[in-house]
Design brief:
The complex is a heterodimer.
Chain A lengths: L2 E5 L2 E4 L5 E8 L5 E7 L5 E9 L2 E4 L6 E6 L2 E6 L8 E9 L2 E4 L3 E5 L1
Parallel strand pairs in A: 2-11
Antiparallel strand pairs in A: 1-3, 3-8, 4-5, 4-9, 5-6, 7-8, 9-10, 9-11
Chain B lengths: L9 E5 L4 E6 L7 E7 L6 E7 L4 E3 L3 E6 L4 E6 L8 E8 L5 E3 L3 E6 L1
Parallel strand pairs in B: 1-10
Antiparallel strand pairs in B: 2-7, 3-4, 3-8, 5-6, 6-7, 8-9, 8-10
Chain lengths: 110, 111
Protein backbone atom coordinates (compact mmCIF):
# COMPACT_ATOMS: atom_id res chain seq x y z
CA UNK A 1 0.00 0.00 0.00
CA UNK A 2 1.05 3.54 -0.68
CA UNK A 3 0.70 6.63 1.49
CA UNK A 4 0.69 10.00 -0.21
CA UNK A 5 1.19 13.18 1.79
CA UNK A 6 0.03 16.29 0.03
CA UNK A 7 -0.07 19.81 1.40
CA UNK A 8 -1.50 22.27 1.94
CA UNK A 9 -5.12 21.08 1.87
CA UNK A 10 -6.45 24.47 0.85
CA UNK A 11 -4.78 27.54 -0.54
CA UNK A 12 -5.99 30.97 -1.59
CA UNK A 13 -3.51 32.90 -3.67
CA UNK A 14 -3.68 36.21 -5.56
CA UNK A 15 -3.25 36.36 -9.31
CA UNK A 16 0.41 36.73 -10.21
CA UNK A 17 1.73 35.13 -7.04
CA UNK A 18 3.96 32.02 -7.10
CA UNK A 19 2.83 28.52 -6.22
CA UNK A 20 4.49 25.50 -4.69
CA UNK A 21 2.54 22.34 -3.87
CA UNK A 22 4.42 19.46 -2.38
CA UNK A 23 3.75 15.75 -2.45
CA UNK A 24 5.72 13.01 -0.72
CA UNK A 25 5.14 9.31 -1.01
CA UNK A 26 5.73 6.40 1.36
CA UNK A 27 5.89 2.89 0.04
CA UNK A 28 7.65 1.47 -2.97
CA UNK A 29 10.91 3.00 -4.14
CA UNK A 30 11.19 4.68 -7.54
CA UNK A 31 7.43 5.16 -7.89
CA UNK A 32 5.77 6.70 -10.93
CA UNK A 33 4.37 10.02 -9.69
CA UNK A 34 1.60 12.14 -11.16
CA UNK A 35 -0.07 15.52 -10.79
CA UNK A 36 -3.72 15.74 -11.80
CA UNK A 37 -6.02 18.75 -11.79
CA UNK A 38 -9.73 18.61 -11.32
CA UNK A 39 -11.67 21.77 -12.17
CA UNK A 40 -15.01 22.23 -10.40
CA UNK A 41 -17.57 19.73 -11.71
CA UNK A 42 -15.13 18.20 -14.15
CA UNK A 43 -12.96 15.14 -14.55
CA UNK A 44 -9.31 14.49 -13.81
CA UNK A 45 -6.78 16.03 -16.16
CA UNK A 46 -3.24 14.67 -16.12
CA UNK A 47 -0.75 17.55 -15.87
CA UNK A 48 2.63 15.93 -15.28
CA UNK A 49 4.13 12.56 -14.59
CA UNK A 50 7.56 11.40 -13.53
CA UNK A 51 9.15 7.99 -13.80
CA UNK A 52 12.31 8.95 -11.94
CA UNK A 53 14.32 11.70 -10.24
CA UNK A 54 14.65 14.71 -12.52
CA UNK A 55 12.42 13.11 -15.19
CA UNK A 56 9.27 15.11 -15.89
CA UNK A 57 6.77 14.65 -18.70
CA UNK A 58 4.21 17.34 -19.37
CA UNK A 59 0.83 16.40 -20.73
CA UNK A 60 -0.65 19.79 -21.51
CA UNK A 61 0.88 23.21 -22.17
CA UNK A 62 0.14 25.45 -19.24
CA UNK A 63 1.30 27.91 -16.66
CA UNK A 64 2.61 25.22 -14.33
CA UNK A 65 5.80 23.22 -13.94
CA UNK A 66 6.80 20.17 -11.95
CA UNK A 67 10.01 18.92 -10.40
CA UNK A 68 11.16 15.74 -8.72
CA UNK A 69 14.20 16.54 -6.59
CA UNK A 70 14.06 13.27 -4.66
CA UNK A 71 12.76 9.78 -5.35
CA UNK A 72 9.60 10.25 -3.31
CA UNK A 73 9.05 13.98 -3.65
CA UNK A 74 7.06 15.64 -6.40
CA UNK A 75 6.51 19.39 -6.54
CA UNK A 76 4.06 21.42 -8.60
CA UNK A 77 4.99 25.06 -9.16
CA UNK A 78 4.07 28.24 -10.89
CA UNK A 79 5.92 31.54 -11.13
CA UNK A 80 2.74 33.58 -11.66
CA UNK A 81 -0.70 32.18 -11.00
CA UNK A 82 -3.64 32.83 -13.30
CA UNK A 83 -7.32 32.76 -12.37
CA UNK A 84 -7.68 29.68 -14.56
CA UNK A 85 -5.24 27.79 -12.33
CA UNK A 86 -7.93 27.44 -9.69
CA UNK A 87 -8.91 23.84 -9.07
CA UNK A 88 -8.38 20.73 -7.04
CA UNK A 89 -4.87 19.34 -7.46
CA UNK A 90 -4.18 15.71 -6.79
CA UNK A 91 -0.87 13.95 -6.44
CA UNK A 92 -0.90 10.27 -7.27
CA UNK A 93 1.39 7.28 -7.40
CA UNK A 94 0.68 4.43 -9.77
CA UNK A 95 1.95 0.99 -8.78
CA UNK A 96 1.22 -1.95 -11.05
CA UNK A 97 -1.37 0.23 -12.78
CA UNK A 98 -3.32 0.98 -9.58
CA UNK A 99 -3.44 4.67 -8.69
CA UNK A 100 -3.27 5.89 -5.11
CA UNK A 101 -4.20 9.51 -4.58
CA UNK A 102 -3.37 12.11 -1.98
CA UNK A 103 -6.15 14.04 -0.32
CA UNK A 104 -5.72 16.93 -2.71
CA UNK A 105 -5.11 20.67 -2.52
CA UNK A 106 -7.94 23.02 -3.29
CA UNK A 107 -6.39 26.10 -4.89
CA UNK A 108 -8.38 29.27 -5.34
CA UNK A 109 -6.74 32.06 -7.27
CA UNK A 110 -8.33 35.43 -6.55
CA UNK B 1 -12.11 7.35 -21.03
CA UNK B 2 -14.48 10.03 -22.04
CA UNK B 3 -12.96 13.36 -22.93
CA UNK B 4 -11.65 15.13 -19.91
CA UNK B 5 -13.19 18.54 -19.47
CA UNK B 6 -16.83 17.69 -20.09
CA UNK B 7 -19.32 18.53 -17.36
CA UNK B 8 -20.06 15.49 -15.28
CA UNK B 9 -23.24 13.56 -16.04
CA UNK B 10 -25.41 12.73 -13.08
CA UNK B 11 -27.36 9.73 -11.84
CA UNK B 12 -30.05 9.88 -9.18
CA UNK B 13 -30.90 6.55 -7.56
CA UNK B 14 -33.42 5.49 -4.95
CA UNK B 15 -31.82 3.89 -1.91
CA UNK B 16 -31.97 0.13 -2.25
CA UNK B 17 -32.14 0.15 -6.05
CA UNK B 18 -29.29 -0.96 -8.29
CA UNK B 19 -27.11 1.67 -10.00
CA UNK B 20 -25.48 1.37 -13.39
CA UNK B 21 -22.74 3.81 -14.33
CA UNK B 22 -21.44 3.80 -17.88
CA UNK B 23 -18.16 4.77 -19.46
CA UNK B 24 -16.93 4.79 -23.05
CA UNK B 25 -13.23 4.49 -23.66
CA UNK B 26 -11.32 5.55 -26.71
CA UNK B 27 -8.16 3.47 -26.99
CA UNK B 28 -8.70 -0.01 -28.39
CA UNK B 29 -5.19 -0.94 -27.19
CA UNK B 30 -6.05 -0.32 -23.54
CA UNK B 31 -5.75 -3.55 -21.60
CA UNK B 32 -6.65 -2.57 -18.07
CA UNK B 33 -9.53 -0.59 -16.62
CA UNK B 34 -10.31 0.69 -13.15
CA UNK B 35 -13.29 2.29 -11.45
CA UNK B 36 -12.69 4.94 -8.80
CA UNK B 37 -14.99 6.58 -6.28
CA UNK B 38 -14.40 10.16 -5.20
CA UNK B 39 -16.21 11.61 -2.22
CA UNK B 40 -16.50 15.35 -1.84
CA UNK B 41 -13.19 17.03 -1.03
CA UNK B 42 -11.19 13.83 -1.15
CA UNK B 43 -8.96 12.03 -3.61
CA UNK B 44 -10.34 9.16 -5.71
CA UNK B 45 -10.29 5.68 -4.21
CA UNK B 46 -10.00 2.36 -6.00
CA UNK B 47 -13.20 0.31 -6.29
CA UNK B 48 -12.62 -2.50 -8.76
CA UNK B 49 -10.54 -3.30 -11.83
CA UNK B 50 -10.76 -5.54 -14.88
CA UNK B 51 -8.32 -6.69 -17.52
CA UNK B 52 -9.17 -6.82 -21.19
CA UNK B 53 -9.13 -10.64 -21.25
CA UNK B 54 -12.24 -10.61 -19.04
CA UNK B 55 -15.75 -9.32 -19.67
CA UNK B 56 -17.05 -9.36 -16.10
CA UNK B 57 -15.67 -9.09 -12.62
CA UNK B 58 -17.51 -8.99 -9.32
CA UNK B 59 -16.63 -7.46 -6.00
CA UNK B 60 -18.58 -6.73 -2.88
CA UNK B 61 -21.85 -5.18 -4.13
CA UNK B 62 -20.12 -4.04 -7.31
CA UNK B 63 -19.76 -5.60 -10.75
CA UNK B 64 -17.75 -4.28 -13.67
CA UNK B 65 -18.67 -5.25 -17.22
CA UNK B 66 -16.38 -4.76 -20.19
CA UNK B 67 -17.53 -4.80 -23.82
CA UNK B 68 -14.45 -4.47 -25.98
CA UNK B 69 -16.44 -4.59 -29.20
CA UNK B 70 -18.05 -1.23 -28.51
CA UNK B 71 -15.36 0.00 -26.09
CA UNK B 72 -17.79 0.30 -23.22
CA UNK B 73 -17.32 -0.21 -19.51
CA UNK B 74 -19.99 -0.21 -16.82
CA UNK B 75 -20.10 -0.33 -13.04
CA UNK B 76 -23.09 -1.85 -11.34
CA UNK B 77 -23.75 -1.16 -7.67
CA UNK B 78 -26.24 -3.46 -5.98
CA UNK B 79 -28.63 -2.19 -3.33
CA UNK B 80 -27.33 1.38 -3.48
CA UNK B 81 -26.78 3.00 -0.09
CA UNK B 82 -26.48 6.67 0.95
CA UNK B 83 -22.73 6.16 1.39
CA UNK B 84 -22.49 5.37 -2.32
CA UNK B 85 -23.19 9.01 -3.17
CA UNK B 86 -20.01 10.21 -4.86
CA UNK B 87 -18.40 10.87 -8.21
CA UNK B 88 -17.38 7.71 -10.06
CA UNK B 89 -14.57 7.67 -12.60
CA UNK B 90 -13.47 5.02 -15.03
CA UNK B 91 -9.82 4.93 -16.00
CA UNK B 92 -7.98 3.11 -18.79
CA UNK B 93 -4.35 2.18 -19.03
CA UNK B 94 -3.17 3.86 -22.20
CA UNK B 95 0.50 2.94 -21.90
CA UNK B 96 2.95 1.63 -19.35
CA UNK B 97 2.95 4.84 -17.35
CA UNK B 98 -0.40 6.50 -17.64
CA UNK B 99 -3.95 6.10 -16.54
CA UNK B 100 -6.42 8.20 -18.49
CA UNK B 101 -9.55 9.12 -16.57
CA UNK B 102 -13.05 9.63 -17.87
CA UNK B 103 -15.08 12.72 -17.05
CA UNK B 104 -16.89 11.02 -14.16
CA UNK B 105 -20.52 10.53 -13.10
CA UNK B 106 -22.07 12.09 -10.02
CA UNK B 107 -24.28 9.59 -8.21
CA UNK B 108 -26.86 10.90 -5.75
CA UNK B 109 -28.76 8.41 -3.59
CA UNK B 110 -32.30 9.45 -2.58
CA UNK B 111 -33.57 8.27 0.78
Amino acid sequence: SQTIHQWPATLVQPVGSPLSLECTVEGTSNPNLYWYRQAAGRGLQLLFYSVGIGQISSEVPQNLSASRPQDRQFILSSKKLLLSDSGFYLCAVIVVLEAFFGQGTRLTVV
Amino acid sequence: GESVGLHLPTLSVQEGDNSIINCAYSNSASDYFIWYKQESGKGPQFIIDIRSNMDKRQGQRVTVLLNKTVKHLSLQIAATQPGDSAVYFCAENTNDYKLSFGAGTTVTVRA
